[in-house]
User: Fold this.
Amino acid sequence: MPHSPKDGNERVLSTLNADGTRRWLRPKPSCGRFHGRRRVFGWFLIVLFVSLPYIPINGKPAILLDILKREFTLFGKTFLATDTLLLMLFVMTLLVAIFLLTAVFGRVWCGWACPQTVYLELLFRPLERWIEGGHAQQKKLDKEGPNGRRLLRHFVFFAVSMFIAHVFLAYFVGVDTLALWVRQSPFDHPFAFLVMGGVTLGMFFDFTYFREQTCIVACPYGRLQSVLLDRDSLIVGYDAKRGEPRKRGKLVADEPRGDCVDCFKCVATCPTGIDIRDGLQMECIHCTQCIDACDSVMDRIGKPRGLIGYSSQNAVSGQKTRFVRPRVVLYPLLLAGLLTIFVTALVNKDTADVSIVRPPGATFGITPSGDITNRIKIRVTNRSETSQTYQALVVGVSGAEVDRPGEFRILSAELPATLGSGESVLAEGFVATPPHVFDKGRATVTIRVVGEDGFNSEVDYQLLGPWTLRK
Ligand code: SF4
Ligand code: SF4
Assistant:
């Protein structure tokens, strides 16, 4: 029997029985106008997820998150770990967009686009019904011990989880590497194999056992709903004024009676096991299944649809819903500001990254001709989309331009370097300078790194030298 406050069996969680054991939910699907749209949209997202690693943009996958190389390619643009400003702006923009989306459309993400809902409701549960049968058969199997159908379901769930785990891995290593690994022994790439195995087991556990509890107890976004939603946000709500007093059975003359026939179809279809008639609850993921279930009941008894429907807390309590309110004005303004800064920073991003460091413990040396040499490491990363050649030279010393360039040399076997898009070079070498530039053992040189595409970056670097006073 589905849970209701009237059954005298109050629950702390819709997924727990009173004795603390798991209450397995076997929701009955309700096919209606929203379910049809969710199915089309959800399958579009699944196909997109599987295809994105295969779609090339500027010669790279549409999305490639190369953690080992610390390179993140998103739709033709490659970001490096050093792009902290861009990354911070991106995360802030995303957060504000989520706040705005939730303030206006409530938990539309949870019900329509979250991978947990999309995969569970549109892939795993339909597969389960196909293998085990409908709601009643599944309940029967719950009471039985291990049986063939459940074993087959486990096998199919594991295979599907493994497929999704491979697609997931492709986002991090690319489809070519993945195809190679699939043909090789796991011992050739043990770490990747462990990652794939872990993701497979995690998904298998989630979609086979944990299921709706991910939304109810584990998802941080679900926990934040009470602060992200306001009384005018879109919710799935029950029209109590119209529905109450709810009554089952035949109409008795003069008996006050609302439109709800207390059929529990909205509860039986709910993937999180709640009764929407109890009001807005944190467990409600706004999946619209109860809307479709109730609409079909209303159609059958000849009443207008919409006893359960998209609404707002104000509308449900008989007040006017306001669309314009402070957070709906402030969030878009903030979003526009962040997007402007993000796009400006992206467009003005340098086409190369340069860093110059002294190797640990290095001091200075003196050549037979009396020049002072300092060891340096110059890292150059090509951030442009084409191959470039880079050169480094000393253009200034202690704040002044070098007047005799021939006396200042950067000696490195790796420079000049020709780098493909996204490639780096770590050039080790020496800066050779005449001894007269040092003052109290120090001299600051300005090193310029130039690229064929006009890239030009100047970095100050402090040299160590003999303790002489410059005249
Ligand atoms: S109450 Fe309705 S909208 Fe909310 S989770 Fe249950 S079925 Fe989905
Ligand atoms: S499906 Fe509609 S009529 Fe049936 S119990 Fe739910 S709200 Fe009432």
About this structure: Residues 108 and 374 are 60 Å apart (CA to CA). The first strand starts at residue 56 and ends at 57. Residues 236, 269-272, 274, 276, 284-290 surround iron/sulfur cluster (ligand 1) (CB under 6 Å). The two ends are 96 Å apart (CA to CA).
